[in-house]
Specification:
The chain is α+β, with helices and mostly antiparallel strands. The protein contains six helices and 13 strands.
């Protein structure tokens, strides 16, 4: 039963008209030197590639100071990306703080930040062939840090059956295999994702998270600079281009390609966050 709305206060319009304030002004946030990254990229050589099968996931490693590129190769397909410090799985991509600093969708020049207490750049986006998309008339954008990843628990809650190729499960299996971990332990390391190529937003009337068919086409790519040595896992989402549904075998799905490039020039990873960690005690 729909609950009645509370009475409208007399000053409702005045309250709604209050100007917003940006939570985290980023004027003092160190800016990436994209020109320097571009110089490094020119001298980089391809050292590995991984083909991510449809409705499955695969892992890859990137040396600190190297690059990795995610490419659509056969048809429109979105991917769910997890990143860890390859030397310490407790340091992982922090989508919530990345969203707070850069916005709901990321593109060239934005950084993927790591979890507390580290809070440092893990990767910097250096190229995005979908950077032209911007925010559309529905409020949708590409490469979001607002969705969590499709998962079998929510699917079970809403559909009352088990589906084992949600991105959460795909990432769990891939990490377990790569690091020789029991599934339960691997699952604890799987985290909220960067939805690569996915087109999403929030409805203006109800504020609900929506998806629409991705504008990605074969040949489109998103490229990153690895600020630290990375272990990555990428799931080719069972939703395909996510234009209709996910968490099923109904959508047309395609593989994704991950290419890794290394540089001979030395690189010093950014320092971990200097906060003293005493929390007032």
């Amino acid at each position: 039963m729909t609950q009645p709305l509370p009475p409208l206060p007399a000053d409702a319009d005045d309250r709604r008209a209050i100007a917003p304030v940006i939570c985290y002004p980023t004027e003092t946030l160190p800016k990436p030197d994209l020109a320097a990254y571009g110089d490094r990229r020119e001298g980089a050589r391809k050292v590995a590639e991984t083909r991510v099968p449809p409705r499955d996931a695969a892992t890859f490693e990137v040396p600190a100071g190297g690059f990795f590129r995610i490419t659509s190769i056969e048809g429109p397909q979105v991917g769910d990306l997890n990143l860890w410090n390859a030397e310490d799985l407790s340091e992982r991509f922090f989508s919530g703080k990345t969203r707070a600093l850069h916005g709901t969708h990321v593109t060239t020049g934005d950084r993927l930040w790591s979890s507390f207490p580290h809070l440092r750049p893990m990767a910097t986006i250096t190229a995005d062939t979908l950077g032209w998309y911007g925010i559309d008339e529905h409020g949708g954008g590409v490469h979001d840090v607002i969705g969590t990843r499709c998962d079998p628990y929510t699917h079970r809650l809403l559909a009352e059956d088990d589906y084992h190729h949600c991105c959460h499960s795909n990432l769990t299996r891939a990490l377990a295999t790569a690091r020789g971990l029991p599934l339960a332990e691997a699952e604890r390391h799987v985290h909220d994702v960067l939805n690569v190529f996915m087109c999403t937003g929030f409805t203006r009337d109800t504020g609900q998270y929506f998806m629409k068919a991705s504008p990605v086409r074969p040949g489109d790519y998103l490229e990153f600079f690895a600020e630290v040595r990375l272990l990555g896992a990428l799931s080719a989402c069972p939703g395909g281009d996510c234009g209709a549904e996910h968490s099923s075998d109904a959508a047309a799905c395609h593989p994704l390609l991950v290419e890794v490039f290394a540089c001979d020039e030395p690189w010093s990873p950014p320092a971990r966050n200097p906060y003293d960690g005493t929390h007032g005690l």
